[in-house]
Amino acid sequence: MTSDNNTARPMIGTDLAADMVAQAAVRAKKLQDETGVQPCLAAVLVGDDPASATYVRMKQNRSKKAGIGSVSVVLPASTTTEELVAELTRLSNDPTVHGILLQHPVPAQIDERAAFEAIAPAKDVDGVTMHSFAAMAFGEPGFRSCTPGGILRLLQTYDVPLSGAHAVVIGRSPILGKPAGMLLLASNATVTYTHSRTKGLPALVRQADIVVAAVGKPNFVRGEWLKPGAVVVDAGYNEGNVGDVHAEEAAAVASLLTPVPGGVGPMTIALLLEQTVDAAEAQNARS
């Protein structure tokens, strides 16, 4: 892809996310009208991290707009793995709860993987369990990790050719970098996984038709790393509304670039709500 005026076109997630939430709201109302079941998302927050609390509030506000019920569970920062697992198991067994979100990161004393695995796969609407990861890897039905799933939807909406493209993913988190690569691979892209310790990283990035930056370091990816006309997805969010990509430099080289904020972030929440309605419909059909 090439840029006509040497300035990347922004890949904005805000409007697409609003459409997704509106469609989820229609489906949620239909389910409630026909069955009396209102889709419900339970958000679990451990501790009092201000950023995490803000994220949870934002997700609950969006849920309300989509006609999705929300349950908030706030546990003290001193919570143990066992206590958190017990709470997530209780929610997994609650028939009135259709989706469960564990806000991460959790305090250091908690085994985060053990906590994620306490979420029933049928309610893993954030796509964080090993079951969901396996479904993404094998191309089977299941919930997608919300940020990678949102990225794929954004790329598809902007008609980015994925089949045969070389995608370089910078980051290897089990809920962002790794599943992003798996979903791109399932779309017939050729995927190179890299991270902050990869040797010769700029040269590898320069080969990419599509770059997904998910490394958690502000302004980490520089414009000179990019192939002219590359599609750049900045999945990072750092203090001061700064992404993982140096936006000004990248905009002069890339053809498409997600802004921070307003790019990937809204897509993450929209997919979470869409998958909560999916879960409610599936659970209601089974019951």
Automatic annotation (TrEMBL):
Keywords: Amino-acid biosynthesis, Histidine biosynthesis, Hydrolase, Methionine biosynthesis, Multifunctional enzyme, NADP, One-carbon metabolism, Oxidoreductase, Purine biosynthesis. Residues 13-126 form the Tetrahydrofolate dehydrogenase/cyclohydrolase catalytic domain. InterPro entries: Aminoacid_DH-like_N_sf (IPR046346), NAD(P)-bd_dom_sf (IPR036291), THF_DH/CycHdrlase (IPR000672), THF_DH/CycHdrlase_cat_dom (IPR020630), THF_DH/CycHdrlase_CS (IPR020867), THF_DH/CycHdrlase_NAD-bd_dom (IPR020631). Its EC number is 1.5.1.5, 3.5.4.9. Residues 145-283 form the Tetrahydrofolate dehydrogenase/cyclohydrolase NAD(P)-binding domain. NADP(+) binds at G171, R172, S173. GO terms for biological process: L-histidine biosynthetic process; methionine biosynthetic process; purine nucleotide biosynthetic process; tetrahydrofolate interconversion. Pfam families: THF_DHG_CYH, THF_DHG_CYH_C. GO terms for molecular function: methenyltetrahydrofolate cyclohydrolase activity; methylenetetrahydrofolate dehydrogenase (NADP+) activity. It catalyses: (6R)-5,10-methylene-5,6,7,8-tetrahydrofolate + NADP(+) = (6R)-5,10-methenyltetrahydrofolate + NADPH; (6R)-5,10-methenyltetrahydrofolate + H2O = (6R)-10-formyltetrahydrofolate + H(+). PROSITE patterns: THF_DHG_CYH_2. Homodimer. Belongs to the tetrahydrofolate dehydrogenase/cyclohydrolase family. Catalyzes the oxidation of 5,10-methylenetetrahydrofolate to 5,10-methenyltetrahydrofolate and then the hydrolysis of 5,10-methenyltetrahydrofolate to 10-formyltetrahydrofolate. This is Bifunctional protein FolD.
